[in-house]
Design goal:
Keywords: ATP-binding, Kinase, Nucleotide-binding, Serine/threonine-protein kinase, Transferase. The chain is an alpha+beta fold and 431 residues long. It is 35% helix and 13% strand. The structure holds adenosine-5'-diphosphate and magnesium ion.
Amino acid sequence: MSFSSSSGSEEEDEGTDSYRKGGYHAVQVGDPFAAGRYIAQRKLGWGNFSTVWLAYDTHSSKYVALKIQKSAEQFAEAAVHEIEVLLSIVDGDPSNSKCLVRMIDHFKHSGPNGQHLCMVLEFLGDSLLRLIRFRRYQGLELDKVREICKCVLIALDCLHRELGIIHTDLKPENILLLSTINPAKDPIRSALIPILKRPEGGTLKGRSTTTMVEKRLKRRARRASMGEAEAPKQEKRMDGIDLRCKVVDFGNACWADKPFAEEIQTRQYRAPEVILVSGYSFPADMWSFACTAFELATGDMMFAPQSGKGFSEDEDHLALMMELLGRMPKKIAIGGARSKDYFDRHGDLKRIRRLKLTPLHRHLVDKYNFSESDAREFVGFLCPLLDFAPEKRPTAQQCLQHPWLNLKNSNQREMNVQSKVNIGMDSLKIN
Ligand code: ADP
Ligand code: MG
């Protein structure tokens, strides 16, 4: 089974197919878990392995996130592993100050589709992917990017140095804000009235995963998003949004001394050593971190490879990396177990012969309207993280010392972003 990224972000919901023996557990609002301690409130999200529900913890009188794993053996094994990682995080970060999601409890839940391992996690807010969408893919101001980067680096430093764990799936979806972007629109955070038992008539026929309450919430959300689309196409201000965040989803994490999957990371955030199969460790997370920081600052993924006529997605990915970061040193290019699939013996790509080189600095200035100085400073932070030689990339600890993290924002970028909005370029990229 593949442990590489399970991402639920692109599709609307998890569909009905996997609600069968070995699959998801169907939950309804008001369902009790762990002998009535937790009461399901509404669905928060889903992945290929699990659905995640907001639940009310009747012991602590707090809301929690309940991650309910699919029941088949391979999913249960993966959950056992994830629980081990989450337990070691609890041990390694006793003060809960390292920007890593905290597990509160775990238990088994039996249902018609089998026995499901459940993890009770602290309830967090929107993912950075939602934040990027909220900004209409225009990118965040650099001082906001800095704040987020600090949290993520604190998390990575603790994971890597204290715990010896590689996350292996760092990306905007797997970093959650502590709160919601717009608390007023969040029915749970604004109303805060827990549902303590299943509402009357809650047993719906057919698709038992969507309750009336959920449908109502969805309609409301749809109306709200339609309202947004009709509004003038301006970026939404981010003043007052709490940007503290935590790293989540340890379903694919591994101890550096026992890597278990050859292919790790979600495609766009995948490090070159993973593509070339030359062995990976903590620096693979640092690569994904750099891709995430770029995406926060620009609104675009740093690399979005696609297969084409005569070349694979992998080869396109390597080509995109070299176009932005320069040629890969020959020794690295030909040094991996898969190198021969992509590179000839001179270290040139076999099927993509002509590269359009655009250094990162020019890319930021020309495509994203960065000022020369903003671009120079940001490149100074990012480029070392994107070294093709993993061992040369700075560690999270070293990165935390980088002067860019403590720079004060210049107004230049703000003005540039504004002029981009005025000429209406943002309308090209509304989702
Ligand atoms: P999977 O391993 O199945 O991908 P994740 O841990 O990524 O599961 O969780 C799936 C989704 O559930 C996330 O993308 C997020 O939307 C939501 N989620 C997960 N953990 C929390 C949490 N602690 N608080 C709020 N929402 C969460
Ligand atoms: Mg996930």
